[in-house]
Every structure is written in structure tokens, then in C-alpha cells.
Amino acid sequence: MPATTGMKGGGYYDANSREQRSASDSFLPWLEAAIADLPAPTESQSSWNVLDMGSSEGANAIYTMNRVVAALRQHTDLPVWALFDDLPTNDFNQLFLNLFPDQTPALTAPDVYTAAIGGSAFGRLVPPRTLHVATTFNAIGFFENKPQTQLPHFVLAMQPNPRAPREGVAVTPEELQPFQQQAHQDLCEFYSARAAELVPGGKLLVQVFGRNENHSTGHGICDVLSDALLDFVEADLLPQTFYEDFLFPAYYRSTQELAAPIEQIPELASAFRIEHLADINAPVPFNDEFARSGDRKAWAKSYTGFLRAFTEPVLAAALPAELVAEQIVDKIYQRIEQLLADNPERYEFHFISIAALLTRL
Ligand SMILES: C[S@@+](CC[C@H](N)C(=O)[O-])C[C@H]1O[C@@H](n2cnc3c(N)ncnc32)[C@H](O)[C@@H]1O
Predict the structure, then answer these.
(1) Domains in the chain: boundaries
(2) What is the pLDDT of residue 1?
(3) Which of 191, 230, 247, 272 has the fewest Cβ atoms surrounding its Cβ within 10 A?
């Protein structure tokens, strides 16, 4: 079973994900330039097939798909299949509503056809050698399966942030190992599936939240989540065992980890050439607004909305049903917002966005 059921639906993710769009944006020019190098269409080719994986409710995915299609249209009039994939539990109704607002297509170029696919990006999604362009943004950091190992003294498979210490919060290198292995294995499966699906010369842009030598995207967000849960444990509102069992099922990779399968596994090394590999400290809209206004309450509100959009489904699924009925979820996010407003320095957030552009050989 996938480790997440997806984002908070009903338009909530769309309304609280400017940060993810900002993190993807810097890498789109790589793909736009690479599209000029796609092999010329074969005699029998009737379309360009583009797949985005982890599209969620679609606002950001449609924006990036429009950019990809516009780049294709500079070179060719062939019809385009715009395919959007996510986990079967995703809010696909919202995705289709976003694709056709007011009955007009949101993908504005002519001769573009849309379809959605339910399935994990760590497995096969389309028939062999049918894709020309594949993209994924802010998605493949979620584990395929929740690792069976416990991490009793933190909520994330990562060393806790030294800038936000708390007594009892700790992770040992030995505890981290199974998570690192699972993240590596997931990525090997992701690349193997795309190697089968892409045509020779096809392009794969992989972007995801990650870490560099200075910061991790997981810090700040998981520190405040951990602090709020521990506050509830200390106030006897949550059992200690809940904190010990709870894990936010994401892994924040370095660029080295993103490239490792291609560099280490002979079948993948012969399937892909790495054209670009980089990390950036992406602009974060709620931080920029805070820098302008100094309004810490507004910052805490936007930060909480951003965090809630991708953590609430996981948190709600892990909480005992009777506590969910008592609106504990709302209370936890209220606590998070309060902690953020009171301690902006402790929960500083940096979006380290990592990416690779690959060509299928
Ligand atoms: C943070 S959202 C990103 C949405 C959009 N790509 C963006 O950049 O704003 C992550 C999405 O990835 C999806 N996801 C997580 N694991 C996945 C998997 N194994 N296969 C496909 N989608 C997955 C989630 O359901 C969620 O909709």
C-alpha cells in the first residue's frame, strides 16, 4: 500500500501550493530547450505523448504541461496526448474540473488530448516505448510503502534540525539506514519503469523536494509538526505511542542520491544520459511576503496551509478515529500555526529543490 493517500483535496492543495510551483519553475527551461532535440517524428507516429506523474489536483501540473506543449508546438503540429498520473486515491475529479474550467480546455494549444492514469510512478504506467516526454514534480520523495522500521524519537527519516533542538528528539545513523535503502530502491524502480516507457531520445525531467549541504526541505515543516505532536503528548491529548509510531513518509534526497541509480546500476547507466543535475534554494512565496511585510501571523497562516495540504491526509489516517471525531486534526494545525507565529526563527523554511534532466538512450 502506498505510504501516502495524496494531498488534501477539494481544491485545498491547489490553493496552498505556490511554493511547489516555484520549486519546479527554475528547471522547466532545461526541458523546454531539450524538446528541440527530440528525434523527428517517425512515419507512423500520430502523436507526442507527454506524461506527468504525481499531478495531484492539477493546478501546478496543468501549468507545467502548458509550458511543455508550448515548447513542442514551436517545432511540430502533431497532436499531443497530455497524460496526468497520480495515486488512485488522488482527487481526480478536481483534476478534471481544472482541465476544463467553464467547459474550455485549460491546455490552450490546439490538438491536445487529455487523460488521467491512476497508479504509482514507482511502477509501469503506460505501454513500452510510447512516451516522448515524462515529468514529475514534488512527488517521488514519498515512499512507495511505509517502511516497517520504527523511528520512535522523530517524525521524519532524517537527522533532526540542529537549529530546532528538543529533548528526546533524535535519530541515529543506524535507524536511518532502512529508509535510505528504501528511497534508493524506490528510485531504481522509478527509473526502470521510465526506461521501459520512453522512446529512444525521449526526455525525463525529475524534480523533487530535497536537501543540500546547508538545508533540508524537511526541516522547519517537520520540526513544527514534531513539536506540536509532542506538546499534545505532554498535555495527555495524544498517547506517547502515537508519536513513536507516526512517520511522515517522505525522504529528502541529495542530488547525489538522485543520480546514484543511474551511476551505479549498469542497466540504468546504459538507458539514460544525465544532461543536467542541480539543486536550488527555491524562492518561497510566503517567506518573500514575510520579508516584505514582517507580518508573522500572516506568514504562520500561509506556512500552515502549505504544510497542511500535504501532511493532513497522512496525519488523519494515522490518528485514532475517536480523536479525529473530536476535531484533533484542526487543533493540531492550530497549535502548529501558533508555534510558527511565536518562533519564526526556529522553524525557518528553505525549499531545496533538486532535479535531473535525462535523455533515454
Ligand atoms: C506535493 S504533490 C505535488 C503535486 C504537483 N506535481 C506539484 O508539483 O504541485 C505530490 C503528489 O504526488 C503524489 N504521489 C505520491 N506518491 C506517488 C507515487 N508513488 N506515484 C504517483 N504519484 C504519487 C501524491 O498523491 C500527490 O498528489
Answers:
(1) 12-217+248-283+349-360
(2) 57
(3) 230
Q: Which residues line ligand 1 (CB under 6 A)?
A: 2, 4, 6-7, 17, 20, 24, 53-56, 60-61, 85-87, 90, 120-122, 137-139, 142, 144, 310
Is residue 2 within 8 A of residue 182, CB to CB? The reply is no
pLDDT given for residue 219 in this prediction: 96
**How far is the C-alpha of 124 from the C-alpha of 102, rounded, in Å?**
33
Q: Residue 280: which of 204, 221, 217 has the closest Cα?
A: 217
What average pLDDT does this structure show over 48-76?
97
What is the structure's pLDDT at 41? 94
Task: Show the cell assigned to 82.
Answer: 497530455
At 320, phi and psi to the nearest 5?
A: -60, 140
Contact residues for 271 (Cβ-Cβ < 8 A; gap 6+): 191, 195, 360, 361
| Best CATH choice for the domain 12-217+248-283+349-360 from the list 3.30.70.3040, 3.90.1510.10, 3.40.50.150, 3.40.190.10 | 3.40.50.150
Of 27, 50, 55, 122, the one to substitute when testing ligand 1's pocket (max ligand atoms within 8 A of C-beta) is 55
With left for phi above 0 and alpha for psi between -120 and 50, is residue 207 left, alpha or beta?
A: beta
Q: How far apart are CA 55 and CA 105, in angstroms?
A: 17
CB 69 within 8 A of CB 32: no
Q: How confident is the model over 18-44, as a mean pLDDT?
A: 96
Mean pLDDT in residue range 72-86: 96
The minimum-distance atom of ligand 1 relative to the CA of 310 is 1
Helices (H) and strands (E) in the chain, counts: 14, 7
Q: Can you name the residues that pair with 172 across neighbouring β-strands?
A: none
Helices (H), 131-247: 173-197, 221-234, 240-245
6 Cα–ligand 1 center, Å: 6
Gyration radius from the chain CA atoms: 21
CA distance 306 to 298: 12
